[in-house]
Amino acid sequence: MKRFLVSTLSVLALSNLGTVAPAFADEIATVNRTTSNTISEITPFNLVSSSYQGRFSNQGIPSYNAFLQAIRTNRIEAKDLVQTAIAAGRLSEDTLKDTEYLNSVDSLLDSLDKN
User: Fold this and answer.
1) Residues 48 and 14 both lie in one domain
2) 3-state SS string over the chain?
3) What does the alpha-carbon distance between residue 88 and residue 84 come to, in Å, rounded to a whole number?
4) pLDDT tens for residues 22-50?
5) pTM above 0.85, yes or no
6) What is the pLDDT of residue 36?
7) Which tens digits make up the pLDDT trace of 69-98?
8) Neighbours of 112 (CB within 10 A)
9) Looking at the structure, do residues 31 and 13 belong to the same domain, yes or no?
10) Residues 64, 92 share a domain
């Protein structure tokens, strides 16, 4: 009797997976649709290091020594990098109003300028 009860419960549990899984799949699809429209924000450190490495060269930001020279001569500033990242889809436009973010990028650029 116990075997019959256990096997019956197992069959019922497995048969319910067919009705639960599609509902769960719909939830996953909904979550994926909503997250695909969000921007993957880049940290200030990653923004500066990516710029130095030439990841924004297509947007007119020089790389390596030319990047350092542009910082020293004030041709590149924090706001320039943020605008470039916004154009590349790495930051939201609200970042231009985020003084903490801009100050962090500026501080990192200053530290590169001093080295």
Assistant:
1) no
2) CHHHHHHHHHHHHHHHHHHHHHHHHHHHHHHHHHHCCCCCCCCHHHHHHHHHCCCCHHHCCCCHHHHHHHHHCCCCCHHHHHHHHHHCCCCCHHHHHCHHHHHHHHHHHHHHHHC
3) 6
4) 544 444 444 444 444 556 689 999 999 99
5) no
6) 44
7) 999 999 999 999 999 999 999 999 999 999
8) 16
9) yes
10) yes
